[in-house]
Amino acid sequence: MLKAAVLVSGGGTNLQAILDAMESGKITNAEVQLVISNNPGAYALKRAEKHGIEAICISPKQFESREEFHKALLDKLLESGVDLVVLAGFLVAIPPAIVDAFPNKIINIHPSLIPSFCGVGYYGLHVHEAALKRGVKVTGATVHFVDKGTDTGPIILQKAVKIEPDDTPESLQRRVMEKAEWKILPKAIDLIANDKITVTDGNVIISD
Predict the structure, then answer these.
(1) Taking the CB of residue 96, how many other CB atoms lie within 10 A of it?
(2) pLDDT, tens digit, for every residue of 42-94?
(3) Rounded CA gap, 202 and 199, in Å?
């Protein structure tokens, strides 16, 4: 049974999609053991508590330095014994020490079709604002492994979403979540939990 930690900064809709997929059997051989937020007011913590999952806040504001925050985050992940770290709207950069501790065991959901609209500064509504400003006709979401860059790790799954003429950043954000993020993030976890993913030379290979 794969044990996952989900890291989230806000409402936790992707966390809810994961929990729903586990309850419906779309994710097998996996459980969420721990939810961590950098935001003490994150509704995601309440979602976790409702499901009997350990939910804690580890915030940079609790520490004198970023290094101490990073150490506390890493210590908690190691202490929990999780096999997979899922970044589900976690608006904190993951330091190299955590990447080294969990090689190809950290995944992230990004609200665009990488390599478009990704990297430093592209998060939340900023991604959708950029897509609309550029005038692209299709956007989507990407699940990828986390490396020491920003949105540069090996891509696991992508799903495209059509942009409508009257879209706002908010309406596009919602559709990308509903049509793409909530589908491919649970699917990626299921693939990993059932040993159907290997990474070779920076490329993800998915087996049947």
Answers:
(1) 11
(2) 999 999 999 999 999 999 999 999 999 999 999 999 999 999 999 999 999 99
(3) 6
Q: Give, in degrees to the nearest 5, the angle at Cα 166 between 160 and 170.
A: 70
Q: What is the pLDDT of residue 208?
A: 81
4: CB partners within 8 A, 6+ apart? 18, 30, 31, 32, 33, 34, 82, 83, 84, 85, 86, 189
Q: Which of the residues are catalytic?
A: 110
DSSP assignment of 55-91? EEE--GGGSSSHHHHHHHHHHHHHHHT-SEEEESS--
Residue ranges in the chain modelled with pLDDT below 50: none
CB 73 within 8 A of CB 34: no
Pairing of strands 106-110, 138-145: antiparallel
pLDDT at position 65, please? 96
